[in-house]
Each structure stands twice: as structure tokens, then as C-alpha cells.
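FW: tagging you since you asked about this chain on Friday. Here's the raw sequence from the shared folder, copied in full. Didn't touch anything.
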Amino acid sequence: MSIATAKRFTTAEYHRLTELGFFAEDERVELINGKLVKMAAKGTAHSVCETRLERELFKLLGERATLRGQQPIILPDDSEPEPDRAIVQNRPDDYLSSHPCPADILLLIEIADSSLSYDKQVKLPLYAAAGISDYWIFNLSDTCLECYSEPYQNAPGQFGYRRTLILLPNESVNLPCFHDLALDLSRVFPPTVNPE
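HL: got it, structure written out here
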């Protein structure tokens, strides 16, 4: 008796499906380890944090790097995630010829509430395996910023980050690759809503 296995896609096959109109225009999926994964819906706090983060990063970075929001990055062979924010190196074509790959990426950022376990258990090892040097999670459940750096492999097929730094909303953090730029986290985390 044979056991059916789910089809795993390469990034080239995934691009072809997109070109053929396989996905609805408003369908939010990403390719993770060869599998098509539906992206989680965003809550209000997630959207507010995303807006505030975009504003602060844009003010800090100016023309020094390219800021991308929920746009694909290509990881070797079978993954094309769409992180909430990516800071990538400037390129003359603004990535028209191809999405950023690990060599282009300076920092990946996810904003997590309902997606926290997915961002830690699936995306973190995926990013570490690809050699992404810095990965941040704005953890809205615990109201902190988790900064991961120094990717490593601790066993065959198991990847993680050697360093973790936890920052609170009243602190600031320097941007990797731009140590002269400090992000004030109080201007990023959503303000507390006081019911009347």
C-alpha cells in the first residue's frame, strides 16, 4: 500500500502557478519549505504596529537601504516567505529582476500576535538555515521585541540563532548594519487603548 504525500513546490513552480492565475488576487499565501501556506489574518494591533514601524523605519533609513513590506524574499529552492518588513540593500532596479535573496537581506521583521508560534517554530529556523543574520519579532502578546542574531546549525537539519535579546517598549534598539540608527520602540508598539 502506498501513502500519498502532498506535492512540494520549488520557487520556480510557485512562480509559474502565480503567472497562470492559480491564486485569487486577494488570496494570501506564501511558499514555506515547498508547501503552500495560508497567511494569518491581521488584527488591529498588528496593523497599527505595522504602520508605526513603517513610519519610523522610513524616517531612520531614508535612502540608505530599501524598505519592503509584505513582499516576497527568495530562500534557496523551495521557500518564498513574505515577512512583515524587510530591510534590504539598495539595488538600481529596486528588485525588478528578482526578489531579494539572503545576500541582499539586512534584517527581517515579523509582527506577531496569533502567528507567534509559527514565526518562532517555522520561520525562525527557516531564516536561520538561509543564513539571515538578523531576525526580529515584534511580540504583541508579551509586548516585547525579540532580536535574534548569529544563525547556526545545532544538529543535522536543525537551525536556530545563538543570540537572543529581549527589549521592552520603553527601550531603543540599534538597527543591524546601521549601528548609528536607533529605533525608539515606544514609537512602534501600539499605544494602550483605555476604554471609556
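FW: The chain has a mean pLDDT of 88.
HL: agreed, and The longest strand covers residues 144-155.
FW: great, closing this out.
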